[in-house]
Amino acid sequence: MSTQEVSHSGRGRTGATRVRGMPHSASLRPGRRDRDAFFDNAKYAAIVLVAMGHAWEPLGSGSRAAAALYLFVYTFHMPAFILISGYFSRSFDLRPDRLRRLVTGVAVPYVLFEAAYSLFKRWADDDPSHPVSLLDPWYLTWFLIALFVWRLTTPLWRIARRPLALALTIAALAACSPDIGDDLDLQRVLQFLPFFVLGLQLRPEHFRMVRRPAVRWASVPVVATALVFAYWAVPRMNAAWLYRRDSAQELGAPWWSGAVITLALFGCSMLLTACFLAWVPGRRMWCTALGAGTLYGYLLHGFLIKGSRFWGWYDHPWVHRPAGEIAVTVLAVAVVTALCAPPVQRLFRFAMEPRMEWAFRPYAPEAPPARARTVPPQASRAGALHGSGTAQRSGTWHRYGTWHGYDSGQRAGTGQRAENHRPFM
């Protein structure tokens, strides 16, 4: 029996029908929308790496090992997050309900958290002159404005002939252009763009490919080599290249190095991202449910990260000892895990996923156009004249450029008529 056949013996107490050949977590359950455990696990692991990287940043000045881990993680943690965001944006178009979701799920949280972060800095850092500006994203909010721009441009990338090559060209040119400025953090928007565009091009089979055992074990020496290289590069490399918020000239490098390093970092980031995804489990685990709340953890943990700097938590000498560095890492993982939990999601849903029915007109999807169901008499006569083994098409051209018609006459001697849909090229 194939995997598409239904086994009624797999019916559980809930009455759900289980498909033979599918894991139990993928069984159909009434009233429940199944999520892919692999991607939820990947998003949770990525946000944990983001929090760890932020926690390690102040430790790099006194520990070369911590600085090496920081460089290693920063090479791929945001690229992996952006790649997955692009993958789940493949179906985005300018349909009203999707635009509404983009506004309520990305634009509104950007406005609220940009204001909240700015006010927090005024209070926690004793800086009352810090501006509240929606044009200059501060700290973590750059990702929201970038995601807003990337998703709006998704229809363009879907019709481009060579989307990834075009995105890489744009990123390389941005890295050579110091005049772009800081508005909307456009340097980051453009330099991280290739990862989002690549995510738009991926399909499920690509993720299955990197999860094969051969790829998984091949990733071990790659990661080991990357860690050794990061340790070597600590005193020799400017970590600001990994932030992608400045041009080459602003980092004191010749203009042409911006394009070279952009392409080199893209290759390194994608290689390590593949290694990261190779070890992400595909089964449902205790942390799988937290994958739905990674944006909550991302935006909320920034207050604690910035507060730790403002309030001098890293000034204590014990923090820079091995035990202190381990404690900081464990605390960062615990905090971001708690912030991804469902209770936190319910508490902050008003800011992260507001409903805002009052702001939008009701939207009702258009019903699909009715198909032509009749066959003109002359087509039937033509089918009879041309014999039982041939078929004549009749029907109408739909206004969207699709032929809606039927094969008339007999097919293979059965006398059945099959509907024929052929796009207008």
Quick recap:
This protein is mostly helical and 425 residues long.
Explain this structure.
- This protein has 16 helices and five strands.
- By secondary structure, it is mostly helical.
- The protein folds into two domains: 33-359, no CATH class; 377-423, no CATH class.
- The strands form two sheets. It has a three-stranded antiparallel sheet with strand order 3-4-5. The chain has a two-stranded antiparallel sheet with strand order 1-2.
- Helix 1 packs parallel to helix 13 (294-310) and helix 13 packs across helix 14.
- The longest helix is centred in the first third of the chain and has 29 residues, at 96-124.
- Residues 1-32 and 379-425 have low confidence and may be disordered.
Q: Please, how many domains? A: 2
- Beta percentage is 5-15%
Computed structural class: mainly alpha
Low-confidence stretches: 1-32, 379-425
Radius of gyration: 27 Å
- What does the average pLDDT come to? 82
- Secondary-structure element pattern, one letter each: EEHHHHHHHHHHHHHHHHEEE
Query: What is the share of helical residues?
Result: 40-55%
Sketch the major β-sheet. 3 strands, antiparallel
- Alpha-carbon distance between the two ends: 39 Å
Q: Helix count?
A: 16
Q: Using DSSP, what is the number of strands?
A: 5
Strands side by side in the biggest sheet: 3-4-5
Shape: globular
